Amino acid sequence: MGDRIFNTPEKIMFALGVVILSMALFLGYREYAFGIAIAAPVAWLFYRWQMRAVANPGDLSPQRATLRLVFRSVVRLFVFLGMAGLSFLGGELFFFGVLTGLFLQILAFMGQALSIIIGKEG
Q1: Upper half-sphere CA count for residue 79 (Cβ side, 13 Å)
Q2: Domain that holds residue 49
Q3: What is the mean pLDDT of residues 90-114?
């Protein structure tokens, strides 16, 4: 994570979220935009939480660091599944808005992996 407040994937996640949210509001899909507005901050917080585990600030052994990361991934999975399940109560557009907001974290991970693969980071 470094000493920077926001890293590049977080900036991309924020920019995509703002663009998608703005377009949804512009097109009149308020329920969809509301779903994004609720889920995107949750996805961002879980992204930060997992990146803190990856950075291993406590200098844990590789086994303990891996266990911490897996535990956080499982917690994130259950929270995301819970949010997706409960969002059905808000209707179809709200459900897809929540899924889009949660997907922003996956996009950040994919962008980070792609930048590592092409050698620009890591």
Answers
A1: 14
A2: 8-117
A3: 88
